[in-house]
From TrEMBL:
Protein name in UniProt: BTB domain-containing protein
Organism domain of life: Eukaryota
PROSITE patterns: BTB (PS50097)
All residue ranges annotated as the BTB domain in the record: 59-121
Length: 200
């Protein structure tokens, strides 16, 4: 840093003129390389697996739901769900026949669940989070379960709070249960008048 001061006296007035200059020494960062960089493309694994699912390529098992068949890959199902892993690892009927029959879920719910299993995404949660929550709970898909909890929490209202609390309790969705209880506590007089509260 450099400071210059000049003093002027004119008509019995003192004037000071200060000039401050900052000089930065040049430096180099040893971590920075002068070599050209390579642009690494984004990972397309989720897209590639999603394409396998959508096009039913190289499948080795089948999920049957209400007469509708969904072709799938045992290795992917087993890698993503402990329930499917147990089915295929042990000497169970599903493993012998390469066929899993699902009687308690609707085809569109299984399709959404399978989309999540293959891609990690669940785009239709706003319209079907309650039923996908049941599938996620059944097949131990913890991240999908929390995604459903989040969607249901964002949709909490006086009309659906009691039903949401029931779902959270039934499927052991702890975060959703806490949020639903907090919401009901804050709106107890309105919620207690709803038909879903009265039928609990």
């Amino acid at each position: 840093m450099e400071v210059k001061v000049e003093v002027f006296i004119y008509d019995d007035q003192l004037t000071l003129l200060c000039k401050v200059s900052m000089v930065q020494e040049s430096f180099s960062i040893s971590n920075q390389s002068t070599k050209p960089g390579i642009q690494v493309p984004r990972c397309t694994l989720a897209d590639d697996l999603g394409e396998l699912w959508e096009n039913s390529r190289f499948t080795d098992c089948c999920l049957v739901v209400a007469g509708q068949e969904f072709r799938a890959h045992k290795a992917i199902l087993a890698a993503r769900s402990p329930v499917f892993r147990a089915m295929f690892e042990h000497d169970m009927e599903e493993s012998k026949r390469n066929r899993v029959e699902i009687h308690d879920l609707e085809p569109q719910v299984v399709k959404a669940m399978m989309g999540y299993i293959y891609t990690g995404k669940a785009p239709d949660l706003d319209s079907m989070a309650d039923v996908v929550l049941a599938a996620a709970d059944k097949y131990l898909l913890e991240r999908l379960k929390v995604m459903c909890e989040d969607a249901l929490c964002r949709d909490l209202s006086v009309e659906n709070a009691a039903h949401t609390l029931f779902l959270a309790d039934f499927h052991s969705a702890g975060q959703l249960k806490t949020q639903a209880l907090d919401f009901i506590t804050a709106h107890v007089s309105e919620v207690s008048e709803t038909s879903s509260w009265k039928t609990m």
